[in-house]
Amino acid sequence: MMRKETQQALFTGLRDVSPMLPGVVPFGMLAGIAAIEAGMGPLAGLGMSVIIFAGASQLIVAQLVAEGALPLVIIATALLINLRMVMYSASLAPYFGGLSFRWKAVIAYLLTDQAYALTIARYFGTPAQVEQRWYYMGVAAMGWVVWLLSTGLGVWLGAAVPPAWQIGFALPLVFLVLLVPVVNDRPSVVAAVVGGSVAVLAYDAPYHLGLTIGAVAGICSGMLAESLLARRRSPGHG
C-alpha cells in the first residue's frame, strides 16, 4: 500500500499534467503518420515511440529514414535535437541524484519538457524528499501513455490512408508550429535563422548531413549569441 503522501503526490502530478495532454495527441499522431510515410511498418513506428520517446526527434528520424540517410547520421541528429535533456537532467539532479540506479533509469527514460517544467516549478529550492519522485511519475508516466496511444492512432491512420493522399506535407507545418512559441528572444531567433538557413544550404550535403549540420550551426550560433548578450549586460562591460 502506498502512503497517503505518496498517493497524493502521484495524483497531484496526474492532475497538473492533464491540461497539457490534449496538445500531445495531434503531435503523437503526426509522429505515427510520419513513420508510415517514411516507409516504416506499424511495429517500427510504435517501436520508435517506445525507444526514442521524443516527438521532434521522431519526426526528424522519420524524415531522414525516408531520405535514406546513414544510421549514424540519423542517430547523431536525433541526439543533437535532444541535447536540452542533458541540461534538464543536471537541473533535476539535486532531487533525484541520490536515488538507486533503477529509479534514475526510469526517471531519465520518461524525461520530457512537460515532466521537467512541472517538477522543477513545484519543487525548485526545496530539499529532496520521497514525494518528489512520485509527483514526477504522475506527470511523466501519464505523458508516456498518452504519447504511445496517440502515436499508435497515427500509425493506424497512416496505414489506412491511401498513399495518393500524400499527407506527409503536414510535417513541415508541424515544425513551424513548434518553432513559433520557442523563438521568443534574440539568441533563439539567431539559432532558428542560422540553423534553418544552413540546413537549406546544406540540403545536398553528402550522406544526408544537411539537417545535422543545420542543427549544429543553430546550437552553436544560439550559444554564441547568448554569450555575447550576457557579456553586454554585465556591469563591467564598457
Give a description of the structure.
It is a single chain. The protein is mostly helical and 238 residues long. It has 2 domains: 4-168, no CATH class; 183-238. It is built from 12 helices and no strands. It is globular, with a radius of gyration of 20 Å. It starts with a helix and ends in a 5-residue tail after the last helix. The model has no long low-confidence stretch (mean pLDDT 81).
Descriptors for this entry?
238 residues; mainly alpha; 2 domains; globular
What is the mean predicted local confidence, pLDDT? 81
Radius of gyration, in angstroms, nearest whole number: 20 Å
Could you tell me the strand content as a percent range?
Answer: under 5%
- Helices and strands, in order, run as HHHHHHHHHHHH
Q: Ranges with pLDDT <50 over ≥5 residues? A: none
Number of domains: 2
The share of residues in helices is over 70%
Helical stretch tally? 12
The counted number of beta strands is: 0
- What is the subunit organization of this protein? single chain
SS-based structural class? mainly alpha
What is the overall silhouette? Answer: globular
Q: Whole-Å distance between the termini? A: 63 Å
* Major sheet summary line: none
